[in-house]
Batch of 4 targets.
Target 1
Amino acid sequence: MTDTAKKRQIAIIGGGILGVTLAYKLAGRGLNVTVYERGDNLGGLAAAMDYDGARVDRFYHTILSSDTSMQGLMEESGVADKRHFTATKQGFYDNGHLYDFNTPVDLMRFPPLNIIQRVRLGLQIVYAQLESDWRKMDVVPVEDWLAKFWGRGVYQKVWKPLLRAKFDSTAESVPATYIWSRLRRMMGTREGVTSKEMMCYIENGYYTLIEALARKAEGLGVQFHLKAPIEEVVIENGQAAGVRVGGEVRRYDAVISTLPSPTLGGLIPSAPADFRALLNKQQYLGVMCPLLILKKRLLPYYVLNITDESIPFTAVVETTNLIDPQHVKGYHLVYLPKYLAPDNPIANWSDEQVQAEWMKHFKRMFPDYNVSDIAAFIVQKAKYVEPIRPMGTLDEIPEIQTPVARLYMGNTVMIYPDLGNGEAVTRYSAKVIDRVMADMVGWA
């Protein structure tokens, strides 16, 4: 820690997992850090909610045994004793039937595909692990890549509905990197010849980690301001000089934004017009993600993938097949997500309309499940979830150091081709910190 670092005042906009991680690590380098969060609590998409005295995640999150950054933060923040590893299972819902899809044996028995298609699917999963040059896949449509290696039959039966589910109407512009990244991430957590998928959860939800990191950061002098929306990033002579909040200008040596690109674009009216246009151009998938709180278990799977395109939700995610129900007062938690393109009208549906439509299909899928065992149906939604990165647009990814001196940014747009999960985001924090610390040497 240097005397120069002690004098530096840094403002971080956004109190999600990236903002909190940056605050903790920058404070550890000796900087004076202040975090501004517009919400009532920290966490962003990783925030929690209370139900009947149990704290549960608003949205489901995946932490893998191979997520070294997240595992390290758990150790540093002191919540490793609340971490539990579990072997999970997944399945497919096809034509009214449920099928296991976990081991090579399950794959070779998978009825929706013929034997040749099953072999091709298995070979392509292996190929994805061996392919390391993601840039050449950035200009290849995901449909072409999947159909080439898996065949049109596998694509139509398995991948097309999954792409529709994940990317909504934007699926045709998606590059092959998205599937490549997902296959590599998920296969990286399988252990041994049994191919068991190892995931972990933290007692009382993902927010437990954020809460612990925030406490550690506060111990290092970080100040967190909640219900404090930034009105403007103050720019003077082409340099970020502070932020305006509550009508008051607060001055800082540097400002780091962790906000979605369009949100930042609206806060910097004095920045170069072409940079603001770049930020405002970036589109995101949103999500409609009802949470069913059940009195009894629904499925044996953590994730049930759905190939039926008439069903609005993309999957059935029963997180209490990962989380021990004892940590959520014996309830069973089921998320029914639907990813939404920017123009999808479902984003504007009322909670009542969502519940009526979702439950209609839920009852069709699970006719034997007693609806009296559904304790609650809670609609959760978010606007900015997954950046839409069309093919051949790498030049539209912003740099950490923006065209405005001492204004830095980090968000899920910038971690491509990695996926927008806690592991990739917290790992990216190191790049932001390295850039800020390197530049600081030359600050007047």
Target 2
Amino acid sequence: MTTHPSGPTSGQPLAGRLVLLGITGSIAAYKAAELVRLLTAAGAEVQVLMTHTATAFIGPLTLETLSRRPVMLDPLELLPDRRIGHIVAADTADAVLVAPATARWMAAMANGLSDDVVTATCLATTAPVIVAPAMDGEMYAHPATRANAATLAGFGYRIVEPEVGALASGSVGQGRLAELPALVSAVEDVLHDRPVRAPDRSAWPPTSSMTPEPDLAGRHIVVTAGGTAEPIDPVRFLGNRSTGRMGVAIAEAALARGARVTLIVGMTSVPLPETATIVEAPTTARMRDAVLAVLPDADALVMAAAVADFRPVKTADTKVGRDQGMTLQLEPTEDILAEASALAHGRAEAAGDPDARPLLVGFAAETGSLERAPAKAARKRVDLLVANDVSEPGSGFGTSTNRVTIVRPGAEPEPWPQLTKLEVGHRLLDELLRLRPTPRRH
């Protein structure tokens, strides 16, 4: 059993403490990275919780890197050992700091609506909760928000009032997130006479298993992400439920490990990493062109996009009216991975050097069974095929976790446990390094 001293050390008033930082969807969320740094400097271990709207303002990868723990994004999320993530956090935290707290989050919390991981954790914990509102001045002054703040104070939550100043809307008023040192001081204040709640760190949420070493430096990783949209008319399209979260997680993992990343995106609903080269490819045809254009320079091609299998034979030039009715005749789209694989293998064989081609990774989204995956891997001549059952809870489109099975040529499929998509991305990159320890020969 690993234990930690029950009190602070000199100069680190939060030493030995586990602090949960709940981030909600305010533009002030960008300050969370510095807040994690300040809490860590005060000695705290930090576990970040984010609502899905918060991820539009700051990427989870940044916060995971700073906190050294996978960010919790969903109340249904399981830890690798199958414990419920937010319950583990709630049971072991010394304090919860919600900063920034939006008007919507305060309303949900005041009424016990646990549809996000931050609210669910606050409902499940007996640790002290500090709430730092941030919003437009008129929103904060509204009687509903004031009533909700009073309700939270009635729960025993400490409210750190926002400051008066310039706001994101351009107006001036009370709604600006309190200064970050004041938030850290509030955490220190509520904990100064309390013992460490869970001295056994093995009970805490786990630290990240990611390797921050730049072991992909000098390599060019190409990743496709999101779904393709095949137009029916200028307004409508055929698409799928892909959000792009898995492909973006792979791209973020590769960037964190020093790779140069080209991210070819279809239709996505998650933030894209700023340091990647982004190529927009909303249709299968455009994604094919983008992939083939960059293929000769790639060390690895990871086809995580959910590419449409069919498209309309004809696309209307103007919007089809409801009174006209609609009958669609479909044709197969290009098989991008099969074409890229044929070109890559052909060039390597012509050069007489099997390492003169990029490594090829395919994805297979199935429902109910993965029995077709090995045949697909063999047919497309990929180095790895990542198969998952998208009908399984925690493994489908839009979730923060995934449960995948890795198919390698000539080997038995290897099921992986349910992991965050970022963890899947890192483990997948580990596989590529094992297949090819050095960059390809161009």
Target 3
Amino acid sequence: MKYHIYGIGNALVDIVTEVDDSFLEIHEIEKGLMTLVEADRQFQLVEAINLKESNMQCGGSAANTVIAASQFGSDCFYSCLVADDEMGHFYLKDLRANHVSTNMNSEVLPQGITGKCLVMTTPDASRTMNTFLGITSSFSRNQLHAEALTQSDYLYMEGYLVTSENGLEAMIEARNIARKAGVHTVLTFSDPSMVKYFKDQMGQVIEGGVDLLFCNEEEAMLFTGTTTLEEAREALRKHAKKFAITQGANGAMLFDGDTYIDIEPYKVEAVDTNGAGDMFAGAFLYGITNGHSFVESGKIASLASSQVVSQYGPRLKKHQSEQILKHLFE
């Protein structure tokens, strides 16, 4: 089968909940960042939260992106690693419900604990994540599906994978397979902490340049060692043929390989910024793999990400994706 997008990344069951700033202070959680934690630490936090008000779904940064692209209409494949436990089976069921193919077979899953991400949203719409990677920390080149990758238009790599040696090796091997097969390479920096603390590893992945890069303003400046967006975008041209820099409420700035393009934001009242960047990337990738121009794809991505921050959770419903396309193109 031919795929539009082949993604690799962490498989995490997202537990999305609302907390206030005092909860973060009491439990000494660094606000606004993704922090890796051990199982017992995450269990303590989960116990302290009223999970009746939470929402659980399959996630991870790249998973959210390929699911978004799939909901818009792209054919997607996702390589990941889950365990033979309740959360692992839940993850694969939810992935398939969103019409995303995968390397994992629910009848033959390894022993271990499926990763989980506790996503805590505060009243100011900021999202803070505490992640226990579980078995996904063992994601490696063994989970790559070369046939699906070489039959895809785009390889999408999640920046969070650089935190482990085996994850980094998988990214580099996937990139090499893609380049040899003529598959476009795409990287997302994922989080400022990935660029800040794993810049050398990120540099290894991006060595030789990628075809398309997704990042936000802070990540762009951290990676390039610059202090303004204008300086950062010039420096990024050495590393990516094309890129998209998201700017939150100010929209986004695209580079199509020739011209800088400003994408206007859609004004909404943000209640949860969780998944905004993932949604932007997924909607954008849908656009460029389904006949839309760079500018049109930017508009789809901007409208989709604005809608996702106006509600809780990192996903839109299928009918919301359809309405976005209808609003823009009919």
Target 4
Amino acid sequence: MLGLRFFVLTLGLSLAPPIAMAGELSVHASPALLKLVTVAELQPQALDSVLDLPARVVLDQSRVARIGATVTGRVTEIHAVLGQSVKKGERLAQLNSTELSLAQSDYLKASSHVNLRRITVQRAERLFSDGILAEAELQERQAVLNEAEVDLRAAEDRLRVLGMSEADLERLAKQRTIYSYSPVTASIEGVVIETHIAVGQVVQPADALYTVADLSQLWLVAEAPEQQAHWARQGDRAFAEVPALPGVEVSGKLIYVADLVNPETRTVTLRMALANPKRWFKPEMLATLKISKPGAPALSAPNQALIRENQSDYVYVETAPGVFSLRQVKLGEELGERRVLLEGVRAGERIVVDGAFHVNNERMRSAAQ
């Protein structure tokens, strides 16, 4: 019985397919296999280390305007809606304001007062030249005129603060007719991305009625762990991938690297300028920010050249034309789609960089036979 068990175990071991380790089996590639294989010579080359950071697309805050009314009033007309493109100075809405009417009334009164005081001063100057009026009386009337002119300038400045242009002031001074309607105008060129306005609504100068953004230039914002913050410097070139736009190459410069570490997240904020002339990128899109760092020259191989077997890594080395031998290697850092080769190969040797999968299949087939 013991002999039978020994025979079965021995038979089982003999039937198990042998595992060909490095150096035990070379593959003589057929012409058909050679067509599927690419061989390249190993030479040291400097590979950039790449830091991948989760990021998102946000508005360029220097190109965003929150627009409100310059006076307290009631909305009578709405000219711009959500998503509409507007020009700088374009009318977005119109208000009817009693505050503006009162300010115009004060201006007209101050203007009339100045005109009256000027006539008084001109009469006093004639009387003074004729010796009828004393010099002190003339100076007193000139002082009253100066005070009236100060009040007029203050009334003008108030109207400017309330949103009236120089053309509006000239019209008011010439026609002397109160116009109580005040426009809400765009302060920049862009797209209306937010509205908080309705006809009949009473608004205050502190209310943000519209948000207009220039979407031709955006930001890509990421948070770098403090241990890796030294990778980033303002002005460095950076790259990004946006999953929503596969195949679109994105590059730009880091325009901001925070000087402070966020005490809650232990990260440093990075910001990259993102040109958006075709409006492909949308705020709040997710992305990956890639920052590269130059590395020292080293031997490396693409990921597809590596064979993983029995918890070890191998490459196929060309030992003769059309002959490939499996050789164990020690891998280093992964840099993009390549791995550094620390041990097992030398500069000048030729390895299979593409098609190693087919060579390995042929080796396994030969080993099974």
